[in-house]
Design a protein that fits this description.
Elements (H helix, E strand, L loop, with lengths): L1 E5 L4 H6 L1 H8 L3 E6 L15 E4 L8 H13 L5 E4 L4 H9 L4 E5 L10 E3 L7 H8 L19 H11 L9 E5 L12 H8 L4 E4 L6 H11 L4 E3 L6 H9 L3 E5 L2 H9 L3 E4 L16 E4 L23 H4 L3 H12 L2
Parallel strand pairs: 1-2, 1-4, 2-3, 4-5, 5-6, 7-8, 7-10, 8-9, 10-11, 11-12
Bound molecules: iron/sulfur cluster.
């Protein structure tokens, strides 16, 4: 048997698709269609036979790109396609590829092209929802649903290089991920938290190159000698390797929490305009979440708006530093 998994949405969603991929791999070979940004995350993954890059916004944009990709997939002669991303375009892709069995959620835009529709269980974690796409009738997960990534030698070497000059004083690493592409998801008190934690922990700021100004604010507050600024320095898979070496991660509701889940790093996720009940919270064996309870406007958006529509942004501003500091200690010393 051979299966195709289509996941071209956000990087975090791709990480959360790995339990589905792993379960399908127990029954056959699994190829994955994903974005250029997502493809490197699946390097070394033992459950993935082949990663097929679909650059739907650039090189493969438009009907010509869709047709070319469909022809590539047709050669794979897949027994079934699993639609972890639910657009009409993705559904059309696998139809054009001649795949007879197409499985996806009953809420997806492309569902009218599916041959089997699976209930989108709003009350479950998204990793479990995705896993159910590949489940047999009545089948339940054997244990906890946990995403997995597999950093390799190249990732270990790049993290070794990053940490080469960090003093070996025994201070545990505490990772902070202050960024998010959605402005209202960015907790504004990371610098204050770093200042409190820096006397005991070596603070590692993770994120993309766009997060460098946030890392600079953290360094200014906590003292640059206590900070390792990893923003823009590592690939996503190498960031997972770095997180695997950290005692814990404090993060907004964004991709780093899923990287940490995939390598088992204890995680505290700070929720503002979104809530864990959406199904995208941390899954590391030890994890916690924090958010302002009793705020009538919260949650206000499935992702988080760029700016607070009410102007006060209390969902993040009121998330108190002392409370978060206590939650970090509780996570680190259960
Ligand atoms: S409306 Fe409420 S939940 Fe939404 S961003 Fe503003 S404070 Fe946060």
């Amino acid at each position: 048997m051979s299966f195709l998994v289509v996941q071209t949405s956000f990087l975090g969603d791709l990480v959360l698709t790995t339990p589905l991929i792993a379960s399908l791999a127990e029954r056959g070979a699994v190829d994955v269609v994903t974005t250029p940004a997502g493809a490197p995350l699946l390097a070394n993954h033992p459950a993935v036979r082949r990663v097929i890059v679909y650059d739907k916004r650039r090189a493969d944009a438009g009907f010509g790109g869709l047709w070319r990709m469909a022809r590539t997939l047709r050669a794979g002669r897949y027994d079934a396609a699993y639609m972890a991303q639910g657009s009409v375009r993705s559904a059309a892709l696998v139809v054009l590829a001649g795949i007879r069995e197409i499985v996806g959620f009953n809420t997806s835009a492309g569902r009218f092209l599916y041959t089997r529709r699976v209930r989108y269980a709003k009350d479950r974690h998204h990793a479990e929802r995705l896993w159910t796409l590949g489940a047999r009738a009545g089948e339940a997960p054997a244990g906890a649903i946990a995403p997995r990534l597999y950093p390799g030698e190249a990732e270990r070497a790049s993290v070794d290089r990053l940490l080469r000059d960090v003093p070996r004083d025994g201070a545990p690493y505490l990772a902070l991920a202050p960024g998010s592409i959605w402005g209202t998801k960015r907790w504004p008190h990371f610098p204050a938290l770093a200042k409190r934690m820096a006397p005991v922990y070596r603070i590692i700021v993770v994120g993309g190159a766009d997060d460098a100004p946030l890392a600079a604010e953290i360094a200014a507050a906590a003292g640059s000698e206590r900070i390792v600024d990893a923003t823009g320095e590592l690939t996503l898979l190498a960031s997972a390797e770095l997180l695997a070496r950290c005692a814990a991660l404090v993060t907004n509701d964004s991709a780093p929490q899923h990287l940490a889940s995939a390598v088992g790093t204890p995680t505290l996720t700070l929720f503002g305009p979104t809530v864990p009940a959406f199904g995208f919270g941390p899954l590391a064996p030890r994890h916690d979440t924090a958010g302002v309870e009793g705020l009538a406007c919260r949650p206000c958006d499935s992702h988080g708006p760029a700016v607070c529509p009410l102007g006060h942004w209390r969902c993040m501003r009121d998330l108190d530093v002392s409370h978060i500091e206590g939650a970090v200690h509780a996570l680190l010393h259960p």
